[in-house]
Structure formats: structure tokens, C-alpha cells
Write a sequence for this structure.
């Protein structure tokens, strides 16, 4: 089993798409091991996206991610990282495959509805960022 971090971004929460996205996550066979509604400060968004500091899109990204509530989740499944990225689709919704979340719910590269970890090391950092010291639910039971 593998775990990944997923975020339902502020644009999707604002447009009341959280339930639809959660349903798609469950329909795709993921187990939700942790979930929180968060309102990031600009500083928290900058910390989370620190790997992108200095890139031209960094200020806009951190402003957007701190613009409203987001839902952060830990998803578990065999091959969770790749499977979640496949379900999300390409970063640019206009280039995402039919049936993907970003194709259906994203409106631009910046407001593309969802985020997902891109590698096991990234997933470990991102899960720890939002769920520090939290014992995540185990398969077959609670906590």
C-alpha cells in the first residue's frame, strides 16, 4: 500500500465541488486515511510550496492557495501516487484527458481543482506538513 497527499483546492471548494471530488476518490478505490478542512495563511502556503520559491508562478500560487478553504487528504491504495495523478489529469485542464478531475473541474493551470504528490519523498513531506504527529487510520480499522 502507498499513501499520497491530495488537496481539493480553494477554487473547487468555492465552487462546491468537494462532495463530487470525494465521491470520485472513493469510486476509484482509494481509502481516505485522514482529512481536514484548512485555511492556509500566505506563510503556510509559501512553506508548503517552498520547492517552487523563486519561480515566476510562486507568488500567484501561494496567494491562490491562501485565498480560501481547501480540503487536504491522505489517500491510500496500491500505487496511490500514480493512480491519484492519473485521476487528477494534466496540470493544464485544457490538456487533461477526458474524465479526469482537472478536465472536468479545472478552469486554468492555476485553478485546476486538485493537487497531488509527485513522488514518495514528496508525499512523505506533504503528509507531514498537514498531519504532523497524527497517527493515520490503518487499513481494516480506526487509528
Amino acid at each position: 500500500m502507498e499513501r499520497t497527499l491530495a488537496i481539493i483546492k480553494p477554487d473547487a471548494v468555492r465552487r462546491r465541488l468537494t462532495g463530487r471530488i470525494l465521491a470520485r476518490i472513493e469510486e476509484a478505490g482509494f481509502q481516505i486515511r485522514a482529512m481536514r478542512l484548512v485555511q492556509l495563511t500566505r506563510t503556510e502556503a509559501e512553506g508548503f510550496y517552498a520547492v517552487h520559491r523563486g519561480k515566476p508562478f510562486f507568488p500567484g500560487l501561494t496567494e491562490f492557495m491562501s485565498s480560501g478553504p481547501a480540503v487536504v487528504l491522505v489517500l491510500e491504495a496500491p500505487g496511490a501516487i500514480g493512480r491519484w495523478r492519473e485521476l487528477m489529469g494534466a496540470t493544464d485542464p485544457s490538456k487533461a484527458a477526458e474524465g479526469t478531475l482537472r478536465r472536468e473541474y479545472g478552469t486554468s493551470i492555476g485553478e485546476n481543482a486538485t493537487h497531488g504528490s509527485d513522488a514518495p519523498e514528496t508525499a512523505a513531506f506533504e503528509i507531514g506538513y498537514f498531519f504532523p504527529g497524527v497517527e493515520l487510520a490503518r487499513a481494516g480499522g480506526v487509528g
Summary: Strands lie at 2-8, 31-38, 70-77, 114-116.
